[in-house]
Design brief:
Blueprint lengths: L1 H11 L1 H11 L13 E13 L4 E20 L16 E20 L4 E12 L1 H8 L4
Antiparallel strand pairs: 1-2, 2-3, 3-4
């Protein structure tokens, strides 16, 4: 029952999710980087048994993150004495531009599996750095 409710809610929110992604796309600082966007979707559930009330609370969530990434090689000139071995001091710098959206649903079921409470969290734009911290993700 809980999974069916989540699936129906997520499907119903597809237009709102698209709208929230369009809104989130306006928020990042700086211009988008050249190249195509990469879309990453995270989803999951977190069940918790509430012993005092003999209820099962299930949280479903979905996070959609869109990013563009650019990596540059930065060359540092090296001055080495004649005939001495020299180490390259090149390093790379990666810049990420992105945005994302999160939606969720929290359900509580009694010990018999009957739905007691339901909370729906509509798609909401979120800053990319927060979404990455929630998943410890480095694009």
């Amino acid at each position: 029952m809980a999974r069916e409710s989540w699936d129906a809610f997520a499907a119903d929110q597809s237009t709102a999710l698209t709208d929230a992604l369009a809104e989130a796309a306006k928020s990042p600082a700086g211009a988008p980087l050249p190249g195509g966007e990469t879309e990453t979707i995270y989803g999951g559930m977190a069940p918790t048994w509430l012993l005092g009330s003999a209820r099962l609370r299930v949280l479903y969530y979905r996070r959609v993150i869109r990013t563009t990434t650019k990596t540059e090689i930065i060359h540092h000139p090296t001055h080495c004495p004649d005939r001495a071995p020299c180490m390259n001091r090149d390093e790379s710098k990666t810049t990420t531009h992105g945005y994302g959206v999160e939606l969720g649903m929290e359900l509580e079921l009694d010990a018999n599996g009957a739905l007691v409470e339901i909370h729906r969290y509509r798609p909401t734009p979120m800053p990319i750095d927060l979404l990455q911290k929630l998943h410890v993700v480095t694009p």
